[in-house]
Amino acid sequence: MTAWNSFTVPMPYSVVAGFAIDKDGNFPILHRSSKVRSAPNCWSLPSGLHEVGETQSESFSREMREELGLFVHMNSTAILPPYENIPGDGWHWVITHLVSRLSGSLVDVENLEPDKHDEISIVNYQLLQDPVNFLNHYQVHPSAISWYLTYGSRVYQIISNECSHRN
User: What homologous superfamily is domain 12-166 in, according to CATH?
Assistant: First the structure.
């Protein structure tokens, strides 16, 4: 496992991020601290490096445990197209988003990486119905804005369908 602050070679890194939804369509979003190299002081979904030997779902599940102490079902409801964050400092992140169901409740959420995230917010998927409204509430990294504008309403539909099948 590679520690998030130990990268030594600038190159494209595959990252998984995702919507870990509870039975009501709520999901955690994290405010990245000023101490992180990538996307400081921005809101971000739980995310992390896609490790060698893991599927994207396995990587996302591991990240949820490491960052928030939460467990997600390994079979993702959806895997969405990636976007790239190329900040111009030699680094390159290829970020793929997943939608996965939580095995439990968001009541148990805990910030296990306070140096990386200084705040956690719980968001209801209804806010994604209008991606511009979502972006007005949560300042995401500029490289993510077009992804939310393109796929936010699709994520809304996926979560809405998932919630209607569970209730």
Answer: Nucleoside Triphosphate Pyrophosphohydrolase (3.90.79.10)
